[in-house]
Amino acid sequence: MGDMTDAPQLVLGSASPRRLELLAQIGITPQKIIPADIDETPRPNEAARDYVRRMAREKAQKLRPATDGVILSADTVVVAGRRILGKPADPAEAARFLHLLSGRRHKVMTAVAVAAGDRLHERLVETTIRFAPLSDQQIKDYVASGEWQGKAGGYAIQGRAGAFAIWMQGSFSAVVGLPLAETAVLLKHAGIKGQTE
Hints:
Elements: E1 10-12, H1 17-25, E2 32-33, H2 48-63, E3 70-80, E4 83-85, H3 91-101, E5 105-116, E6 119-131, H4 136-145, E7 165-169, H5 172-176, H6 180-189
Parallel strand pairs: 1-2, 1-3
Antiparallel strand pairs: 3-4, 3-5, 5-6, 6-7
């Protein structure tokens, strides 16, 4: 892994245990985890791509004064048609999201921002997923499981909802919350390498 003393400190600007697990897959452990508390309200008529990029960027910028290390932040949204599906507020909204996604294609967009010094590098990764038609009972059971909580679009692809996805094009890890190939490249440019390199 090389000498850790000359490697910059990595700060993960997310409380997501999934992002931490994904980083571990590429041999990277952040020295600090500082969730960035920002206003996540989309602007009127803001396109999903612009919104998710802005969220990742604003999270990184919010943490800049707190550290001189490298900041990694990310944001994930599910997009059905022109609707941005964030994290459901309650079980009823989770059920509405799943009814909306049932039997159709949707996009999952994950933006990653890496801030190092006065530089900010970004990547946007889009994955297209098609869900099987879901019965009312399947949706009811899934909502009852509680797995939808804190998940964009009201589902976790790495959990029970993996059985809903019948087709996918793009990055699986991006759907979970962090596109690993792209993140590894951004971090490498900022002087942070994983144990796999």
